[in-house]
Write a structure and sequence with these properties.
Length: 328
């Protein structure tokens, strides 16, 4: 199946490419924007790169007309929440206008369109949400994701689906240099925790305001497999392709330390650093999101992994990743 993928150099996109490679019957054309992904023996360039800046709406139209994929998976996004908030017009253009343009081009050429959205369309205040719950975003990123979802729902005769993801963590197989290993307010803390704890350093886990304290963390490779299922299916509407269980950042950190056999007493739950609160003063973050993946699992015939199973798979991927990096 010929798939045009945006964001192939990103955390999610690189795992989509890897999952597609393992499944074997995909032909991937990956739109890329920044520097070319790093190529290593273990991660062969077995797909085509198509330069594309989402800000260039004409380039989006001609990419779809030229490539003529069976489906488009739109993973690329801007994720710097402070920048998005401070540059709303530019962000809207690259996010909402670009998504609308992809969708129009897909409709024109009879191509299925799958858009990656986020659990941050919710405000994190409801006790429970699912695929049918009304969104209530609290930051500009969430507002734009919701706007994209509504644009797609409003288009007649569009073969589309929305795959919401949440708390993505894992390996970036396109560009290892992009692996984040700094402290943060979401669930992508794994590399930070492993780095600090293996050096015998304390890892502060921020608690309280401005943290996404509870979510459904999603191992990127597991989410990628679920999203590819959605691409292959003919299902329409909204799907929760994130991890099947929710947990807190602290519980996740403890489980990670135990799994890696490192000293969990070095994990320090502390109030969010005041400097960090000041730096992000304009941007709200959904606090606690509890949801369900059951409807999506029933529709796609597969559920995503629970917290512990995903962490075990993460450990395996981590070990393989280190070996591959050493070997190349
Ligand atoms: N990370 C999470 O926790 C999370 C949670 C929920 C949903 N999501 C969604 O999942 C998707 C993937 O996120 P991610 O974590 O994989 O992000 P990521 O690692 O930051 O990757 C973002 C991708 O977007 C591409 N991109 C940025 N600006 C572009 C432009 N102007 N034109 C074309 N491509 C551009 C980047 O390409 P270059 O590298 O070439 O610049 C990169 O491949 C996004 O839609 C995001 O909103 C993520």
């Amino acid at each position: 199946m010929r798939l045009f993928l945006t964001g192939g150099s990103g955390l999610v996109g690189s795992n989509v490419i890897r999952a597609a490679r393992q499944q074997g019957d995909w032909e991937i054309i990956a739109g890329h924007y920044g520097p070319e992904p790093e190529w290593r023996a273990a991660w062969p360039r077995d797909y085509v790169l198509h330069p594309l800046d989402m800000a260039d709406l004409d380039a989006i139209r001609s990419a779809i007309a030229q490539v003529r994929p069976a489906a488009v998976l739109h993973c690329a996004a801007l994720l710097d929440h402070d920048w998005l908030d401070a540059n709303r017009a530019a962000a809207w253009h690259v996010t909402v206008a670009a998504t609308r343009t992809f969708a129009e081009a897909c409709r024109e050429h009879g191509v299925r369109f799958v858009f990656i959205s986020s659990d941050w369309v919710f405000d994190g205040q409801e006790p429970f949400v699912d695929e049918d719950s009304p969104p209530h975003p609290v930051n500009f990123y969430g507002i734009m994701k919701f706007a994209c979802e509504r644009e797609l729902a409003s288009m007649d005769d569009l073969d589309y689906a929305v795959a919401r993801l949440a708390g993505i963590y894992g390996m970036n197989y396109s560009n290892p240099a992009l692996l984040r290993d700094e402290n943060g307010l979401g669930f992508d803390l794994h590399n930070f925790i492993i780095k600090r704890l293996t050096r015998g350093q304390v890892a502060p886990i921020w608690m309280g305001p401005k943290t996404n304290d509870i979510a459904h963390p999603t191992l990127a490779s597991d989410g990628a497999e679920q999203v590819l299922r959605l691409v292959r299916s003919d299902r329409r509407g909204i799907f929760h392709c994130f991890g099947s269980e929710c947990t807190s950042r602290l519980e996740m950190a403890y489980s990670l330390a135990d799994l890696f056999g490192i000293d969990r007493s070095l994990l320090a739950p502390v109030p969010t650093d005041p400097e960090v609160l000041r730096a992000h003063s304009r941007v709200q973050i959904p606090y606690r999101i509890r949801s369900s993946t059951e409807k999506t699992a029933a529709a796609l015939g597969r559920n995503t992994l629970g917290v512990q199973a995903a962490l075990h798979r993460f450990k395996q991927e981590w070990d393989e990743f280190q070996e591959e990096r050493m070997a190349s």
